[in-house]
Specification:
Layout: H1 4-18, E1 27-29, E2 54-60, H2 64-75, E3 81-84, H3 93-96, H4 108-111, H5 115-118, H6 129-142, E4 155-161, E5 166-171, E6 176-184, E7 193-195, E8 206-209, H7 215-218, E9 234-238, H8 242-254, E10 257-262, E11 268-269, H9 278-284, H10 289-301, H11 314-327, H12 336-361, H13 365-370, E12 383-384, H14 388-391, E13 397-401, E14 409-410, E15 414-417, E16 420-423, E17 426-429, H15 439-443, H16 455-458, E18 477-479, H17 492-513, E19 518-520, H18 522-532, H19 571-583, E20 590-592
Parallel strand pairs: 2-3, 2-6, 6-18, 8-17, 9-10, 9-17, 10-13, 11-12
Antiparallel strand pairs: 1-7, 4-5, 5-6, 14-15, 15-16, 19-20
The structure holds NADPH dihydro-nicotinamide-adenine-dinucleotide phosphate.
Length: about 600
């Protein structure tokens, strides 16, 4: 029997230990002396002439958002789509994150976009990064998106030219070209950050961020070959989030000595990865299969109608448990309060299971105790892995737990925790990405719309859109991201593919009508925002949670954050709604001129 009261006290004590007044400011931006951390270790930058031409559609970001939108536009007959990407190829997250062990953690069948269109069968239930990157390249090739793409190119400004009804795009490569339409898919987690640990610049050994893995230094490769050059090295990995959980087993196997430096433990549940059987795949891959799988997962996750669970994994199990606890309540007790209490019960049980899993795997009692997560499962990104905890049974792998305080200091020779200096040859920062900083800071540009009005001004009191795609005052511009749409966070690609299809339908309509502009009306946008505010509010980001990027590092995110919500009737209902909206041909709320 779970002692709820005692657990709550423990959760609060663990959170309080970690709260810091500096919130997001505890992290360092990779600029100035630290900018070399951003260098691309994978592809040399090729010289090219600046572009000064015109295209129908320019898309900022060559990750899943740009690829699926580009593909749908090409299918809709828009051939000159130009994708601008700061990396040296398509892939976005999967271009940069090539650390050993990187793999998707929602099932490949629903995570990898356009599987049906490209005819690719994922090799595993959770595919590894090289296969996902290849899928991105496959989409790029199949839809001819390479022909017009600009890699190693960062957008510096996007300016609406009123008289010409088009956008002017300037980049760090000297480009100054125009586009009739623009799309923005820069992703939520694309700017790496470092912890602001005193002395971080003093270290004389080797150091890199996990999203810029230095295989020249470590040996091995992204496919998981042994990093043989680490055999005689002492290595520290700082951070124990989702990235570290995947990389540690590979480092543990390779390093002479590995220090895993922990501030907050992740919850690590069973992964149960397995190869996909081609015969089984053939049997299910009927036309429309991926849409069916996507919709089934979302329904299981986000309260739609699902009489089966096709994916069957830790994510759907999580939702199933919550639902079953709630449906166990007698009808007269299905009040919001009782339902939240039932959700809490299911969470306590799950987390107890995850904590006892640590005891059953990690032999050293003290280490096991320190690896236990004391917070609700959705306070931080839930992790799933079948080799992470096992790594701590290797004599060469040492957990350095900082009791919630983080690394005290970096020195010329290593790092200091609780007054003890650990000398190392290499420090790997698994310290994550900027979240919660202003959009324009992360994107590197601030749209200048009608009358020169900036997007940051239009959104000064919070994001305002129709469907999370259109912003009034910014004609012919489309956002590709989940907020104010389905807001489905467990399988982001579902949001992106739906946005891509919606945008392609709108652009096709504008071209067919001979319209030079398409823009959401002020009234339609206001009505959508009002509708969003009738919902339950933000589901993630409770201040009771241990600090992290889900809850703005425990700081009040301010009143603007109340608009970071989704369709009040849930993700499944949103997808049904948006499919109807775009196929009706009315495009209600948009003005075509
Ligand atoms: P995170 O932001 O999740 O983790 C950063 C880590 O660095 C945390 O453990 C943090 O501790 C630690 N840290 C920060 N400052 C210090 C300090 N001063 N001293 C010691 N430790 C410190 O980054 P990740 O790259 O792991 O993951 C980011 C996100 O990317 C994930 O949440 C997930 O959404 C996505 N991701 C998805 C994957 C997938 O789907 N396959 C795989 C990897 C990442 P603390 O927790 O205390 O802040």
């Amino acid at each position: 029997m779970v002692d709820k009261k005692a657990l709550l006290v423990k959760y609060i004590a663990e959170r309080d230990k970690r709260l810091r007044a500096d919130g997001n400011d505890q992290y360092l931006r990779l600029e100035g002396q630290l900018s070399h951390y951003l260098d691309d270790p994978y592809t040399p930058v090729a010289p090219r002439e600046p572009k000064t031409d015109h295209v129908t559609f320019a898309f900022v970001g060559g990750g899943f958002a740009g690829l699926v939108t580009g593909a749908r536009l090409v299918e809709a007959g828009v051939k000159d789509v130009r994708i601008l990407e700061k990396g040296g190829d398509f892939g976005g997250t999967w271009y940069w994150n090539r650390y050993p062990g990187a793999q998707c953690d929602t099932a490949s069948m629903i995570y990898m976009p356009l599987l049906e269109e490209t005819g690719h069968m994922p090799s595993e239930k959770y595919a590894h990064a090289p296969e996902i990157l290849e899928q991105c390249q496959r989409i790029g090739r199949q839809y001819g998106l390479y022909d017009n793409a600009l890699f190693h190119t960062e957008v510096e400004s996007l300016t609406w030219q009123e008289a010409e009804h088009r956008w002017l795009i300037r980049t760090n490569r000297g480009d100054a070209f125009t586009a009739s339409f623009i799309g923005l898919g820069t992703g939520p987690l694309h700017v790496p950050k470092l912890p602001g640990i005193p002395g971080i610049g003093d270290f004389k050994g080797h150091a890199f961020h996990t999203s810029r893995w230095d295989y020249d230094y470590t040996g091995g490769d992204p496919k998981g070959a042994l990093m043989e050059k680490l055999a005689d090295k002492r290595v520290a990995i700082i951070g124990t989030g989702a990235t570290s959980v995947q990389a540690v087993p590979h480092l543990s196997r390779a390093c002479g000595k590995l220090y895993v430096v922990q501030r907050t433990p992740s919850s690590v549940d069973v992964r149960a990865n397995a190869p996909i059987d081609p015969d089984w795949f053939k049997s299910i891959a009927e036309p429309g299969w991926q849409k069916r799988w996507l919709e089934n997962f979302t329904a299981n996750q986000a309260g739609g109608a699902a009489d089966e669970d096709l994916v069957q994994d830790g994510w759907t199990d999580l939702s199933r448990r919550i639902r079953s606890k709630i449906s166990d309540l007698p009808p007269e007790r299905r009040t919001p309060m009782d339902m939240l209490a039932a959700y809490e019960d299911s969470d306590f049980e799950k987390m107890e299971e995850i904590r006892s899993r640590v005891d059953s795997i990690v032999s050293d009692r003290e280490t096991a105790q320190k690896l236990k997560a004391w917070y609700r499962q959705l306070c931080k990104r839930p992790c799933f892995h079948d080799a992470y905890l096992q790594s701590f049974n290797s004599p060469s792998t040492v957990l350095v737990d900082t009791d919630g305080q983080g690394v005290e200091k970096i020195t010329e020779k290593g790092f200091v925790v609780a007054g003890v200096e650990y000398e190392v040859d290499c420090i790997i920062y698994a310290s994550g990405f900027e979240v919660g900083t202003p959009f324009e800071q992360r994107a590197g540009f601030d749209l200048a719309g009608r009358g020169g009005r900036r997007l940051s001004e239009a959104w000064a009191e919070g994001m305002k859109t129709l469907h999370g795609i259109h912003a009034h005052g910014f004609p012919n511009a489309f956002l590709v991201q989940p907020t104010q749409g389905a807001n489905l966070i467990s399988n982001i690609p579902h949001n992106l593919t739906e946005s891509g299809a919606t945008i392609a339908a709108i652009v096709r309509e504008a071209l067919d009508r001979g319209a030079q502009e398409v823009e959401v009306t002020a009234e339609a946008q206001a009505a959508w925002v009002d509708l969003l505010l009738t919902g339950m509010g933000r589901m993630l980001g409770s201040p009771d949670c241990t600090p992290g990027y889900y809850n703005n590092e425990g700081q009040d995110p301010g009143p603007a954050a109340r608009l970071n919500v989704g369709y009040p009737h849930g993700a499944s209902a949103f997808f049904t709604y948006i499919q109807g909206w775009r196929s009706s041909g009315a495009f209600e709320g948009l003005a075509f001129r």
